């Protein structure tokens, strides 16, 4: 059994902030935990524009606080997001998240991320094996 709190993850190597400060991800469960998925609490700052493309991962996102817009860049669709909204990137869609207010979300990745990934110039996480 694994029991963790976000408080104990804060300011450790499991607490990752983007280089521009637009988002912060607290990686609660990682690939090294050996459970087949990773689980994160991610906060995205209001007024930022964030492009992502998880070409190697499926991601499910549940928004629990805040409001904003999700732009599906592959299918030219726009979705309003608010508390209780969920989106699933089951087609590896390139997407943009534009928060009107700070957004806090819970995210699940499969395959799991290891915590060592860095978004490349296209917003993609490489596929890194857990150690």
Report what the structure shows:
- This protein is mainly β and 131 residues long.
- It has one domain: Jelly Rolls.
- The chain is 3% helix and 43% strand.
- It contains one helix and ten strands; from the N terminus they run αββββββββββ.
- It has a six-stranded antiparallel sheet with strand order 1-2-3-10-5-8, with no helix packed on it.
- It is globular, with a radius of gyration of 14 Å.
- The two termini are 19 Å apart.
- InterPro entries: Ectoine_synth, RmlC-like_jellyroll, RmlC_Cupin_sf.
- It holds the Pfam family Ectoine_synth.
- It catalyses: (2S)-4-acetamido-2-aminobutanoate = L-ectoine + H2O.
Query: Looking at CATH, which topology would you report?
Result: Jelly Rolls
**How many β-strand runs?**
10
CATH H-level superfamily: Jelly Rolls
From the helix content, strand content and strand pairing, which structural class follows? mainly beta
Attribute tags:
131 residues; mainly beta; Jelly Rolls; four-stranded antiparallel beta sheet; 43% strand; EC 4.2.1.108; RmlC_Cupin_sf; ectoine synthase activity; Ectoine_synth; lyase
Tell me briefly what this model is.
This protein has 131 residues and is mostly beta strands.
Write the topology of this structure.
Elements: H1 6-9, E1 15-17, E2 23-29, E3 38-44, E4 50-53, E5 58-65, E6 68-72, E7 77-81, E8 86-88, E9 94-99, E10 103-110
Antiparallel strand pairs: 1-2, 2-3, 3-10, 4-9, 5-8, 5-10, 6-7, 6-9
């Amino acid at each position: 059994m694994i029991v963790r709190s976000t408080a104990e993850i804060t300011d450790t190597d499991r607490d990752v902030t983007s280089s521009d400060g637009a988002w912060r991800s607290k990686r609660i469960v990682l690939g090294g935990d050996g459970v087949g998925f990773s689980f994160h609490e991610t906060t995205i700052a209001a007024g930022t524009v964030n492009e992502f493309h998880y070409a190697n991962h499926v991601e499910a996102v549940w928004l629990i606080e805040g409001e904003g817009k999700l732009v599906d860049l592959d299918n030219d669709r726009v979705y309003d997001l608010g508390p209780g909204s969920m989106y699933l990137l089951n087609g590896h869609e390139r997407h943009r998240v534009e928060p009107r207010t700070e957004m806090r979300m819970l995210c699940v990745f499969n395959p799991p991320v290891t915590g060592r990934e860095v978004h490349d110039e296209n917003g993609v996480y490489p596929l890194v094996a857990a150690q």
